[in-house]
Protein: DNA-binding transcriptional regulator, GntR family
Amino acid sequence: MSKPKKLEEAAYQYSKKQILTKQWLPQTHITEIGLSKKLGISRTPIRHAFLRLEEEGYIVIEQNKGIRIREKQISLQGFRERLEFMELLLIDYLHFLQIKEIQFKTNSLETIVDQLKRVTLVKEIDVFSDIEFDYWTGFYQYARNTYTTSLFLDTFRSINGQADQEIQGFLQISQPTKIKHFNQILIFLKQSEYALARKEVRILINQLSLIAIQGI
Structure:
């Protein structure tokens, strides 16, 4: 094997290992120049290694940005399982809020819902997803268990980072449903009606599951 091929193979194996062992998490951005400095090799073999990884579905090459680690592709069953998992985490968190008698301040989240309304059904669904991520981050503002919060947000990213066109379509058509229930959940939180907020979460997840079954 020639030296250029050995360097490409080294960059390929290193990058693939980083992805498979979760050292590079999904949605992480990596640049050629950054990896070049890390491995002490030129950018050319790294570029070739990235092309191989993109062909195998591990990454997405973004012009002038480097690469983005792809989310693991999931089936419809996996999609629904993640929704159900998110529901369990949300219900548990709302129980915590109720037990601690938290007075939930909703102002910032109400502003985010207004932002979501303005970008509903736009062609670039990443815009909606980014703002929705802010909603859930703010939603967990009173959480004391950072691990649980990370699990929820990672699950959210795994769903919204799917490249499958049918799932992308589901994410878009589900936007009005999300906004409706996001807003209602905030109304209940503002009134400290945690039991009703939990019920609303269950309705939301059920609605999203139905849309997924019908639309995917």
Notes: The mean pLDDT is 91. Residues 76-99 form the longest helix (24 residues). The chain has two domains: 3-69, 76-215. Strands lie at 29-30, 59-62, 66-69.
